[in-house]
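Can you give me the bound-state structure? Components:
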Amino acid sequence: MDSGRLEAFSDGVFAVAITLLALDLAVPRPGNGALTHLLAGRWPSYVAYAVSFAAIGVIWVNHHSVFRNVTEIDRPTLYLNLLLLFFVVAIPFATATVAAYLRDSRYSGDTTAAVLYQCVFEGMSLAFGLLFWRVVKYGRLTVPLSEADRKRAFIRFSIGNLGYIAAIGVAFVSAPASLIIAGLVAVYYTFEQTPVAAAAPAAPDPDDDQ
Amino acid sequence: MDSGRLEAFSDGVFAVAITLLALDLAVPRPGNGALTHLLAGRWPSYVAYAVSFAAIGVIWVNHHSVFRNVTEIDRPTLYLNLLLLFFVVAIPFATATVAAYLRDSRYSGDTTAAVLYQCVFEGMSLAFGLLFWRVVKYGRLTVPLSEADRKRAFIRFSIGNLGYIAAIGVAFVSAPASLIIAGLVAVYYTFEQTPVAAAAPAAPDPDDDQ
Amino acid sequence: MDSGRLEAFSDGVFAVAITLLALDLAVPRPGNGALTHLLAGRWPSYVAYAVSFAAIGVIWVNHHSVFRNVTEIDRPTLYLNLLLLFFVVAIPFATATVAAYLRDSRYSGDTTAAVLYQCVFEGMSLAFGLLFWRVVKYGRLTVPLSEADRKRAFIRFSIGNLGYIAAIGVAFVSAPASLIIAGLVAVYYTFEQTPVAAAAPAAPDPDDDQ
Amino acid sequence: MDSGRLEAFSDGVFAVAITLLALDLAVPRPGNGALTHLLAGRWPSYVAYAVSFAAIGVIWVNHHSVFRNVTEIDRPTLYLNLLLLFFVVAIPFATATVAAYLRDSRYSGDTTAAVLYQCVFEGMSLAFGLLFWRVVKYGRLTVPLSEADRKRAFIRFSIGNLGYIAAIGVAFVSAPASLIIAGLVAVYYTFEQTPVAAAAPAAPDPDDDQ
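Here's the bound-state model for the whole set.
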């Protein structure tokens, strides 16, 4: 099965999810106070919007990086991709929740909200790790990897996971700090961490043991 | 007419519908109780989200399976595909309704909501069956099927229908149980039930053991 | 400029607009009466949903029919396509409005709502007529049409317009009757009314005078 | 990296953002006054909808113009494209806010709302300028530009920026006037302002000094 339609469908889901993030920016109707104050009071929404936008954007870039080196996929890959999207689609909900509870310091839910937020990202990260492993192991790659390279690729790709686990722990202490960690993980993935892709431009290696 | 744009449009609709499912996860604004309680009390939303996400995901996988073996379609196929999408698009509404009524045990609408939910799936299933039949019978397939194979394919593909009919009946007794049945039907369709697709890779290479 | 990306973008807009239609199906939260009653009382929403879904679906089919016979388009075509989408995107709003005012007979806005609804469709129809004319006249077609064929094609394609004009008039008398007319126009366009497409399968005619 | 998936993802985001604009057209439920009055009182929403629709539409046309002349892109281009989308996705929010505050003259937020609106567009414009520069400088173009042509192209493309800066200033004096300026900038970009594209149809120039 070629990966074209998997990419098209995933792009659609990424596009809708990233656009829905902005729905939470909406300010209350006129008559609820000065607009300047209303906007200023919503800074957690902007931070959460920026972090989640960056995260989904980077997930998309890496998804693109992985699949452009794959010429053929199987049915389990489609399901692992759906598992990834299952968590991606929950990101706007988690983002809106953490923003709402950070905004209103009268209520104590910010810890719970931040834990929820980081758990959604951890779930996404685990699903992406599984998907990556499946693709590298069973997909037909344009540039096949050796067993050792595959392991190295998997570790390098999955290590961001530890960032989200750390962020879950930090969330119990400080919700804003955990958001910063999530932002830093996005920065890590900004750089090329998908060695399938990195290997691609290199000439096909004769002693590659695929 | 080639099926490329039918697939692109359908992918768009599937992507939006699957993402809109998550809108129902939203929790009440701060000030309505402890967030942990709010989240815990919304378990029917998570179950309904998971079942409907799996269902739409599996519909997408099968849609993909069917159409990648079709090189040419006609106008009635476009309309049958629209009929399928007509029901797919109603899934987020049915999901939100069943979740809302399962959540709040003070009200008795859960039976009605579950029947509605299963009827939307039954409609989807009938439309998909018709679409499948049309494609297998009139579409230009990459690997044409014999009359007998076509019948077998149709029966195997349509049998999930019975699951939804059973679920409608069960919904009158227990709404949660009917959700479980819908989940089981999704599991059935997780496996290859579209023999057009199954037949396709068979032909070419005799010693292909990949 | 090839028409691929115009089609991809339009498909995205059609897909989102057709899915947003279903948002209006949402019933009130539990505690506002028996669900069976709530659902039954919302029949105008179902009728409006069905008519608008059919209309957008048929617009998509015809859009597809027109553009699959076009190999090259110019910048004004992109803008006329945007004008078409401008009205398509307003359909969910017009649909929700007409449904809300038909639902509640205590208020008299149903005439206004139905006129608004039909005006959106008339605008869509005019924009599609202009787009069709531009494509047939200046686009590079796979099967070029003679001047006479072009005129005939334009008239045949644009005649649905009269249906919407009639529907605007009827809306002043009866809102439900005007919805029926809109539905009938959708039925008219269900059949092939885009002779560019119809001409395509025929072998290139030697005495074609383009 | 070829630009196909960047375009597909961007098209998805543009399509969702342009469709979400129409959500703000929704009128209050029946029982809040005569529908004709309700509709008439919402003219700022229609103006804002039209201006923002035109703006996103024109951004899409230019995005298309730029990328159809690019055969190969790099990772930073993906991120600059995400930065552009970051602002595009905020347009429905900014549009709804300016419409809400223009609608209700009892409240004074219209200046703030208009400044916010223009700042989102200025951000979009800066991001698009950066993206354009990156593509022209480092992308593999179908028709490479000379250093002088590149500079000229960049200036011609970026000059709309000044329009948005002017609009920010004007917003402090008159919110409606600043909307008109934003509309005029959209008109400017309606015409071909992406000389990469303009150069493309010309035959490859032998003394092109790329």
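A couple of observations. Strands of chain A lie at 70-72, 140-141. The interface with chain C takes residues 12, 15-16 of chain A (CB under 8 Å).
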